[in-house]
Amino acid sequence: xxxxxxxxxxxxxxxxxxxxxxxxxxxxxxxxxxxxxxxxxxxxxxxxxxxxxxxxxxxxxxxxxxxxxxxxxxxxxxxxxxxxxxxxxxxxxxxxxxxxxxx
Length: 103
What we know:
Elements (H helix, E strand, L loop, with lengths): L7 H12 L13 H10 L3 H16 L4 H11 L2 H14 L4 H6 L1
């Protein structure tokens, strides 16, 4: 179980930096989104790229109802639901996991 919580990696980095003598300073930065997206795309096989594009087109043509979308967003605020969503993404598109989660 991954137990994903937004910002957890930054909190952990800060806690570890404070343990050092003298305490280190943590600079909260992230890689630009276009680099992450390019690395995610490069991590997919040709078949996975086709499948991802077809999935995105299908889901954009058949959007969820407003109630379903609100419920889904509310569920994602729970760490277990976020973990489940990331696990499902990784099982469907394993090439996305490393650049999106692990890097």
